[in-house]
Amino acid sequence: MTNPFTSEDQQRIVDAIRQAEKATSGEIRVHVERHCATADPVQRAIEVFAQLGMHKTKLQNGVLFYLAHADRKFAVVGDKGINAKVPADFWETTKTLLRGHFSTGHYADGLRLGIEKAGQQLQQYFPYDGATDTNELADEISFD
Length: 144
Known about the structure:
Elements: H1 7-21, E1 27-33, H2 41-51, E2 62-68, E3 73-78, H3 80-83, H4 90-102, H5 107-125, E4 142-143
Parallel strand pairs: 1-2, 1-4
Antiparallel strand pairs: 2-3
Helix pairs in contact: 1-5, 4-5
């Protein structure tokens, strides 16, 4: 396990996830590891997505923020449900936002803003339904 975040950073990221999920039935997770186990961070993120059971959400609207901090690699991947609805450039614009913060070592700030942006998209396409919505995935950051 590796953790580049202070406990305050972690809490701010988890708070951002909880805040984003208040307005949507979508699910957001963050996974952090030191090194990317594959050459392609998107491929690794897809593996982690499956390992975390993110494909099991009812509306297939999970989003994973993946970060391999020592390798300076990251990816943002969404499940089929959200990929079918968000604009074609959504993931690229989200990665651009993250890259701007990550390049200066501000991982927690980048993640918080990226989560906020993803939450806005999820809210637009998968609004919160208080009658049927449950938190299907843990909000805590997972580490390898």
